[in-house]
Amino acid sequence: TRLDPTGAAIVTDGNVRPYAVKVAKAIKRVGLKTSIHAIPASERSKSMTQLQDVLSFLERQQIDRGGCVIAVGGGTVGDLAGLAAAIWQRGVRLVAVPTTLLAMVDSSIGGKTGVNGRRSKNAIGAFWQPSAVISDLSAIETLPIPSYRDAFAEVVKYAVAMDKGLFDLLQRNGPRLVERDAAMLERVVFRCVAAKALIVAKDERDRGPRAILNYGHTAGHALEAATGFRVTHGRAVAFGMRVAARIALALDLCSKRTVDSQDELLDAFGLPDKPPHADPKRVLAAMALDKKARRGKVAWVMPRRIGHAEIGHSVPAPVVRRVVTRSLA
């Protein structure tokens, strides 16, 4: 489907601006002028201040309802630019061009956009589906090693929560993926995108089955918020998965082998079980502010076995407190 926009505006960050320039040149060749707005490359750019700056940029570029916003970057750029697209002129089209592995396998798919509140992750946002997602694996060839490996927290999430076949694939091909084998990477990205798209198609607004995608995110988002977003999203989700699995074990919902298998796979992708520096009390308080919480109570996603997790579990507060405190010790 041709978009034929009346105008285009590119939002990117300082790290990948050169790649955004390439996108702008490609667009210019088909006769469409565009400008670039670069935000600081930090999770802290997901703020109301930066959102206002992006909206002002769209206004200067005179983007009308026939125009589109092109998000060139990782999850932060996608979330921020996506929210701007959702509310500018009451909604203009969005094209996502993810440049990180994490964005390719997760945040660019599904239509969730948003910025952070002062004490909570992604508290201000909207559902706004992109008109297109263009993932070019060459964009991640120069991605720093920590950022590349961070993405595998989300990949392992899919495997543990809903796809044992993917789990087995990751176990067998871990070294190839760590070395960025393009053919194997393409298989994994495709599998993750397909898995998420199928779930989102069933539950776009996150009111039912889509909750499975929150595996590892309850404690993960709380850790991010409690540390002022100094912990990367991938590291936080890996922490959150370890917490969730240990809670499941404590409640006799899964076996120790399930916990160990998950830990081993996270370790293989450079996401070790090293507790981040965070105050357990702050992390626990942040959980109550999670946007999915109801009256301060969170419905947990619990692993039952590799490839199968369940949504909607209520966990006694003392169990959560004990596991989180031990995990941060």
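(ticket continues) Second input and output from the same batch:
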Amino acid sequence: MEKQDRHIDVLERFMQGATTIEEEQELLTWLREPSSAGVLAIYYQQKWEVSQQKELEAEVQCRMFLHIKEQMGYEEHPKAKRISFRSFRGTWRYVAAMLVGLLAGLTVYWAAFPQQTREEDFIVSAERGQRANITLPDGTRVWLNSHTELRYGTEYGHKERLVELEGEAYFEVAKDKNRRFVVRAGDLEVEALGTSFDVKAYKEDKTWVATLLEGKVRTRIAGQEAILKPDQQAVYNKEEGSLQITRPDNAAYTCMWRDGELAFSGETLEEIAVMFKRLYNVEVRFEAEDIKSYRFSGVIKNNSLENVIELISLTAPITYQAKRDTIILSTRR
């Protein structure tokens, strides 16, 4: 039992990045032993009972164990390691949090053994209607908005800290003078120097926006470069190929989605409809073209779909009707 307790102790310290190379090799060997599955099941059951006072399903225990082995190179032909956040309700709220913590630690393992590195990427995604957050190996914290994918390679942190983004994410970057932190979103590159910022770069949007909340960032795209100060935005118009620096009235609105709040600064209903598809996975159908140009401003703290659409309908001359996964907007008569 003492040896089993030691393995759990090493596992917990490994997740915090506090193990030696010898201990990591020992942990990897143990995880490959059939007996480790039962020990991990008991460990997760205890963690679950402390956190939720509920029984952890055997199927979930099995998935978690297989996921750990997968992250440590146990699979034969992996192309990318993916964590997909489909739901934060019930059981999966705890499981997702546990796996994100494990992934952050396991990335340190891959960096420690370059001779074992394969050309792989770690991928974290938040699907439509979901959000997610992760702590990267260097301590950088990232929040992903709905319909967003973040990708980083096994070389992360060796010479630089590079991540690729499709969608929207908020970053709190760990300071490191020797290794720059770079976010690539398509052709847009945002370089941070120990800072907090938001990047919104969905493929289907006409503009890509980087918003600085604290510190300093450098943005580059299409031969254009700009350094942002706090509360400034770099707005790249994809159709015009132009990069402009602006100072919005409420820069903090940009990242309020992290706390489950929706903030609008004069967006049209047509623009809000795109947001609804990402956040709630619903389609919006307009019964009249002029409705699309109506604008809405304000902060909504209870962001359930019903509450949001009700508040918007109270401030604009529209009525709405919900049919399954479709919201129909009509002119109020």
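Agent notes: Confidence is low (pLDDT under 50) at residues 51-61, 69-78, 85-118. The first strand starts at residue 80 and ends at 85. Closing as not reproducible unless the customer responds.
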